[in-house]
Structures are given as C-alpha cells and as structure tokens.
Amino acid sequence: MNKHELIYLAEKYAAKKANSQERLAVDIFLRKVQEQGTHPFVNLDEEKRNKLFSKIEDKIQSNNNEEKNYWKRIIASAAVLFLLLGTVLLSLIIENDITQVAAKGEKREIELNDGSKIFLNSGSTITYPENFKEDRRITLEGEAFFKVAPNPEKPFRIKSGTIETKVLGTSFNINAYAKGREKISVNSGIVQVTYGNNSSQKVTLTKNMQLSFFEDNLPAITEMNSDNYNAWTNNIIVLDKTSLGETAKILENWYDVDIEFADPSLKELTISGKFKEEKLETVLKSIALIKDLEVDHNNPKSIIIREQKEKFN
C-alpha cells in the first residue's frame, strides 16, 4: 500500500464506506502508532506541515459550497491518518512492507514467495517485507497457522507482541489475540520461542508441545495433540474447558458479531465441545442448553447471553 492508496482508504473510512477488512486495516495501523507512542507531528518538519495544510485548504476551496463540508471531513481525515502514521507508516507501508488482513467473519490462505504458507484466522493481520525470500520476518496480530518452507540459511521469524518464534522448516500455530496470553503449538519440526526482558529467555518446542503465556506469570509448557489448536483451519471450533468469555471472542471473530453477557460472572463458566462448520445459531443453542442460559438478539449482529429465567415459580 502506498501513500495514495492510504489516502483513498482514509476517504472511504471517513465516509463510512470502508468494508470490514479496510476498517480493520486502519484500526490496526492506528493501534501500532499508539503502541509506539508516535506523536502526530513529530516526524514532519514545519515546512512539510505547512505544505500539507496548504494543499488541504486549496482542495477545500476548489469545491463548491455544497461539497465543502464533505471534503473537509474527507481530506481532514486523510491528513490526520497520514500525520498520525508518520514514520511508522513509512516503515510499515512505504518501505515495501506488505500487510495482509483477515477481517472478522473470514479466513485467508496466503502463500509467500519463499514457498511458505500461512492460514490467517478471522480478525488477524500479518506484516512482512516485500523481499521476503531474503528477509523472512513476520509480525502477527491475532492467530495464524504456519507451514514454513525449509531454509537453514535464512530462519523464519514471527514477532507477536514481545514474543519471537524462530524456525527453519516446520508447521505450528500461534494464537496472539490477547497480549500477554499468547499460545504457540507445534505440529512438526522444532520451534524456538524467545521472550522476557531483552529477549533473555528461550524455550525449544517439538511436535505436540505447547507454550502458553499468562501475562506476568511464567509461561507453561504442555504436551497434547496439536491438531486441536489448528482445527480452525478446517472450520472446526474446539473448546476444551474454554471460558465463555474466550468462547465469545472466538465466535465474534468467526461470525462477525458482538456478544455481551448480562452478568459478567457468566464469562467465567467453562465449556468443552467441537463444532464443525456449524451455523452460529446452532453453536449458541448448544452452549445455552449445556449451561442453562438464554440467548437474545438486539439485532442479527448483537447478541446478549443471560441466565435462563425460571420456568416455574
């Protein structure tokens, strides 16, 4: 994506015409800026700022009165996005970095130019350099399953939050939706995970091993069938004593809906089961039946889960 494409995207975003994937892309870039603490104007000197604002003013003045308000909103939003991203944008986009997004409600399969394949789960994004064969590094937000093409001379590295996963040729799953609660699961080969202050700690994982992080606590290593952790690539939801709060986030991503709980304590309930290519209503009905809950809809995209009302007084 170059500078002109970004401004076009900002126009659609401001006019509320961007689709879910485009909105997610903008939100991701803005979040990266916030995480890096970039000030909107730090990376533009006064001369550049004045030129940019002059162009904005010229564009507004060139339109007739009934179009001015529209263009003020559009161009101002584009300028704000451009300024907000500053050097972050230059490093992420203009310098030939590629961003791939799977919006809520969709999954994507991506083949990289080194022969590696990535399955990107709903509500997730990856960023990687255009010359990926020479520089095999990826930044992940969300969840992805990787099938890495072997290349001993150029290790494959994935950055997710403060964690780096390094491999030569293997298949594995990374769930990094929640910062500080990442989970890496290995299906084949050997994976090295680096974490901690100044990347001072390392763990080596092999087939059917998982490394799970719990915010400030030490990560835990488990051993079980890793196929359960990438079952989503076959459109299977696997719940294994999963909290309803976490289950709700999975369903929100898969089906592009919003789920709320009438009583926050319901989020702590756990559930186990498998759902293969099921409709959302089927999954919700099953959960409600097992846990004695009710599912209400404010509208097709907004769902409330509450305790079941007593049938008899």
Topology, element by element:
Layout: H1 3-14, H2 20-36, H3 46-61, H4 65-94, E1 97-102, E2 108-111, E3 117-120, E4 124-129, E5 137-147, E6 156-160, E7 163-167, E8 171-176, E9 183-188, E10 191-195, E11 201-205, E12 209-214, E13 217-223, E14 236-243, H5 244-255, E15 258-261, E16 270-276, H6 280-291, E17 293-299, E18 302-307
Parallel strand pairs: 5-6, 15-18
Antiparallel strand pairs: 1-4, 2-3, 3-5, 4-5, 5-8, 6-7, 7-10, 8-9, 9-12, 10-11, 12-13, 14-16, 17-18
Strands, total number: 18
Integer tally of domains? 3
Helix run count = 6
The percentage of residues in β strands lies in 25-35%
For the sheet with most strands, the description reads: 13 strands, mixed
Top keywords for this entry?
single chain; 313 residues; alpha+beta; Jelly Rolls; Phage tail protein beta-alpha-beta fold; 3 domains; 13-stranded mixed beta sheet; 18 strands
Q: How is this structure best summarized?
A:
With 313 residues, this protein is an alpha+beta fold. The chain has helices at residues 3-14, 20-36, 46-61, 65-94, 244-255, 280-291; strands at 97-102, 108-111, 117-120, 124-129, 137-147, 156-160, 163-167, 171-176, 183-188, 191-195, 201-205, 209-214, 217-223, 236-243, 258-261, 270-276, 293-299, 302-307. The N and C termini lie far apart (62 Å).
What does this structure look like?
- This protein has helices at residues 3-14, 20-36, 46-61, 65-94, 244-255, 280-291, and strands at residues 97-102, 108-111, 117-120, 124-129, 137-147, 156-160, 163-167, 171-176, 183-188, 191-195, 201-205, 209-214, 217-223, 236-243, 258-261, 270-276, 293-299, 302-307.
- The termini are far apart.
- The protein has three domains: 3-95, no CATH class; 104-228, Jelly Rolls, CATH 2.60.120; 235-307, 3-Layer(bab) Sandwich (Phage tail protein beta-alpha-beta fold), CATH 3.55.50.30.
- The chain has 313 residues and is α+β, with helices and mostly antiparallel strands.
- The protein is globular.
- Strand 17 (293-299) and strand 18 (302-307) form a beta hairpin.
- The chain is built from six helices and 18 strands.
